[in-house]
Amino acid sequence: MKGRNIVISSILVLSVASIPFVWSDDDSEEWQEYSRHSTGVAKITNPVYLQECGDCHMAYPAGLLPADAWQRVMNGLEDHFGDNAELDPSTRKQITDYLIANSADKSDYRRSQRFAKRDKKSNDNMRITETPYFRHEHNEILARLVITNKEVNSFSNCNSCHQKAEQASFKERDILIPGYGRWDD
Amino acid sequence: MIIIFPFVLLLAGLFSGAVWADNAAVSEMLDVYIQQGAVQPDAQAGKAIWLKTFIASDGSIRSCTTCHGNDLKQSGKHVKTKKLIKPMAPSVNPDRLSKTRNIRKWFRRNCKWTIGRECTVVEKASLLAFINQQ
C-alpha cells in the first residue's frame, strides 16, 4: 500500500516536473520580458487593411497566416466563410500585397513562425483556427467555453478571450474567457 | 459681438442643414440612381424591402434586419460573427451614408447576401431614401 503510494506520487512528481520542459517553448514570463519576438505577432500597419477587413470581425494581424492561405482568402471574398466580403480590384490587390509581404512565413516573430507550420490539411486551409499551431494551443478548451458560449460564439473571435488580440498580443495573462474567468494553467 | 452672433447662428444653421437634410453622398448616389432610371425614390418601398424576408439557397431566412435589427436607431449584430454593428440611422450615427464608396460597397455585398442578387437601381434608391430618413 505504502509502496504503491510512493510509486504514484513519484509518477506525479515526475510528470509535474516534466511539464516545464514540454511547455518550455519560450513561454516563461522572463523570456517574454526580454524577447519582443515571443509575446505576439507584428501589429497591423496598413490602415486600408485595418479598415476594410475589420467591419465584420477584428482585423487579423497578417502574421497569423502563411502567404498561400492569405492568397486563398483574398481570391474568394465573394463567398467568404458564408458571407460576402467582395472588394473592388485595386483595394483587393493592395490588401493582398500587404498580407503576403507580412504573412506568418515572412515574419521574424517567433509566434508567426509557429503559425506558419504546416500539416497535411494546410494546402487548402484559409483559417487561422485550422492551423496546426492554433489547434495545439487551444485543444484543451472545451466546446462549452466557445461554441455554446454566446459571448464567444466561435474560436474566430480571438478578441473575446484574448483581451489584447487587437494589439496582436496573445499573452496568457491577458486571457479572460467570458463566463469562465481568467485562464491559469 | 452683437454683429457676430447672428452670423454664427447662420453658419451653424447652414452647417447642420448640410449634415442632416442634404447629405452630399446621399444626393450624389440618388442622382446616379435617378439617371439610371429610378425616377422616384420611394422611402415606403425602401422600408418594405428592408423588412422583407428572403429564403437563401441553404434554406436560411435572411433580411436586412438579420444583422441591422428592426430599429435602425439601435446597434445591430452580425449574424455570424456577433460583432456589434453601429446604428444605421444617420440621425444617431452621422457617419452613416456619408461616403459614396461605403454605400456602393455595402449595397453590393448585402443585397447579394440577403436577396441572392444585386439590388436594382430602383431598389437601391428606395432603400437609400428610407435609411436616410431614419
Name its key features.
heterodimer, A: 185 residues, mainly alpha, two-stranded antiparallel sheet, 8 helices, 2 strands, 39% helix, B: 134 residues, Cytochrome Bc1 Complex, Chain D, domain 2, two-stranded antiparallel ribbon, 4 strands, 53% helix, disordered N terminus
Write a structural description:
Chain A is mainly α and 185 residues long. Chain A is 39% helix and 2% strand. In chain A, a hairpin with a 3-residue loop joins strand 1 and strand 2. The two termini of chain A are 31 Å apart. Chain B is mostly helical and 134 residues long. Chain B has a single domain, classed as Cytochrome c-like domain (Cytochrome Bc1 Complex, Chain D, domain 2), CATH 1.10.760. In chain B, the strands form two sheets. Chain B has a two-stranded antiparallel ribbon. In chain B, strands 3-4 form a two-stranded antiparallel sheet. In chain B, helix 2 packs antiparallel against helix 6 and helix 3 crosses helix 6. The N terminus of chain B is likely disordered. Chains A and B meet through loops of A and helix 5 of B.
How would you concisely characterize the structure shown here?
The complex is a heterodimer of chains A (185) and B (134). Chain A has 185 residues and is an all-alpha fold. Chain A contains eight helices and two strands.
Strand content of chain A: under 5%
Average pLDDT figure of chain B: 87
Shape of chain B: globular
The count of strands of chain A amounts to: 2
- The end-to-end distance of chain B, rounded to whole angstroms, is 37 Å
Write the topology of this structure.
The complex is a heterodimer of chains A (185) and B (134).
Chain A: H1 2-22, H2 29-34, H3 47-52, H4 67-75, H5 89-101, H6 110-115, H7 132-138, H8 158-161, E1 176-177, E2 181-182
Antiparallel strand pairs in A: 1-2
Helix pairs in contact in A: 4-5
Chain B: H1 4-20, H2 24-35, H3 43-51, E1 54-55, E2 61-62, H4 65-68, E3 76-77, E4 84-85, H5 100-115, H6 121-133
Helix pairs in contact in B: 2-6, 3-6
